[in-house]
Amino acid sequence: MIRRLLPHPYLTLVLIAVWMLLVNRWAVGSLVFATILGVVIPLMTAPYWPDTARLKAPGKIPAYLAVVLHDIIKANLDVAMIVLFKPRSELRPAWIVIPMDLHQPEAITTLASTITLTPGTLTCDLSEDGRALLVHCLHAPDPDSVVEEIKTRYEARLKEIFA
Question: Signal peptide span per the entry (predicted)?
Fold first, then answer.
């Protein structure tokens, strides 16, 4: 019964949290409306989601978010230093192909979004077979280290989180 009312419970929680953050004030009416949105939107979109995301270890999500937040802050500082102080001639932009071991669409989307959220990198394309991401880096003097960092810091953690 609950699964029928809440086909995507994590999406429901995210929608409630995002709505409350957008409203930027705590009021019962806002919470009620956020809850209505959090229930109705997943119900209306459920037919378009043939499979639900299977999380193997949802308890590892906060640690993943902490790593991503740390990397976003660090990358902001790095990009600021590059833009402000690095001569253009020393800049080494690069297109990098990241081979993936992830198979679940939600995990791939999370990885691509994480890469794009981190300043200085942008996910541009997913290969036709869904096994690689094309990423543009603002400054990548060693592209292999970028691939290794993405695979160890993000993909390995996502493999633990998603079934």
Answer: none
DSSP 65-112: HHHHHHHHHHHHHHHHHHHHHS-GGG---EEEEEE----SHHHHHHHH
Q: Which residues pair with 125 in a beta bridge?
A: 134
Half-sphere exposure for 74 (CA within 13 Å, toward CB) = 6
Say how many residues make up the chain: 163
Q: Are residues 36 and 66 in the same domain?
A: no
Same domain, 26 and 92: no
**Which pLDDT tens digits describe the chain residue by residue (163 residues)?**
677 788 888 889 999 999 999 998 889 999 999 999 999 999 998 888 777 667 889 899 999 999 999 999 999 999 999 999 999 899 999 999 999 999 998 899 999 999 999 999 999 999 999 999 999 999 999 999 999 999 999 999 999 999 7
pTM, full prediction? 0.78
On whether residue 93 sits in a domain, the answer given is yes
Number of structural domains (the chain) is 2
Whether residues 119 and 156 fall in one domain: yes
Asked if residue 13 lies in contact with residue 39, where contact means CB atoms within 8 angstroms, the answer is no
